[in-house]
């Protein structure tokens, strides 16, 4: 690490300001070079950072100057021995900065009335870096600060994203060889429910075929994971169980749609599904108990029941941004979390078979669900896990944090653990950081939740 130059306030400020204020500047407007630099100060954070924080670019294709941008934070516990997590934010097209400051990272925005200055940052006491080294990467190409000078590179897909990430990780270990022996886990949530198991499968196959360097792959974890549209689209039974639609509408929809809600067939099924969506039109899909806010808030809406499985565009709620209260706006009026302009093809329609293959090969898996998410409801996640037909090792029970129920869990054969996070939404660590931090610590330590 000694050869990595420090980056001070003015260097990183440009990068973070582009993210925070949704600037129209592109990465090509800035001076760009490969670098791996220690970040000692951040705008909005008082004093030096109390952790080892690095950021930089890793080349995927040197000929085309195709580079993926990342943040890397060393474990606050024992970085030489603690696991290494590669965190992939969903979307596809949502920046790593989102995972860093809204979900599992060591920083949080102070939510306060915006006064025209830089948003203030504070330390997150429930960061996953308490027990692990974490890499946050802008992926796929075109997300955040990741870029290429070759336009064809921007036509990407699930399978191409996985190949690029495998190459990224290979080259990242060249930059940080001291972490090659650390236990490696691939992690993420939302749309990363596709990317994470497929990438883990790619890495596992590389290990078996003699790929160098040899990664110390141990497993993977995914939260509220997009997995298979038929399983994921269980909005109707979820809404009924949560008291959002009537018994009569639930029964009528279930019968007319034959229990399949992803692609409604038949006129009566369509009529009933429209009635369901009308009942839910003023409900926040990513957390049904939270206020419905425009997409500019940190918690966007989700599009349900389509093959694309993509986030809706900003302000899709129809609520004028300027009229929303502070709990909806956050700290900045024009912040953009995701890039929907990427040329992306969803060429992996289901990741169920990857889960089966990996767990049968001995890799550990943690699947967790915030139980108030209607976008990828826990009902559908439980259903595809049951389809694997693994024996139950430890049956359904509560798991606790500070003596209180934090959720419910079940452990299956082949090192597969499922857990709900009580009261959490689509991005569980965003809503229940303390509970999710405890969940991670126990799981990677091979302790029961």
Descriptive report:
- The chain has 449 residues and is of the alpha/beta class.
- It has one domain: Rossmann fold (3-Layer(aba) Sandwich), CATH 3.40.50.1820.
- It is globular, with a radius of gyration of 21 Å.
- It has 13 helices and 16 strands.
- The chain has helices at 9-20, 96-103, 158-175, 192-208, 229-232, 235-241, 247-256, 267-279, 326-329, 352-360, 378-387, 428-431, 433-444, and strands at 6-7, 36-39, 53-61, 66-73, 84-88, 107-109, 121-123, 133-137, 155-157, 184-189, 217-223, 343-345, 364-370, 392-401, 404-412, 416-421.
- The longest helix is centred in the middle third of the chain and has 18 residues, at 158-175.
- A 12-stranded mixed sheet has the order 1-2-3-4-8-5-10-11-13-16-15-14, with helices on both faces. A two-stranded antiparallel ribbon has the order 6-7.
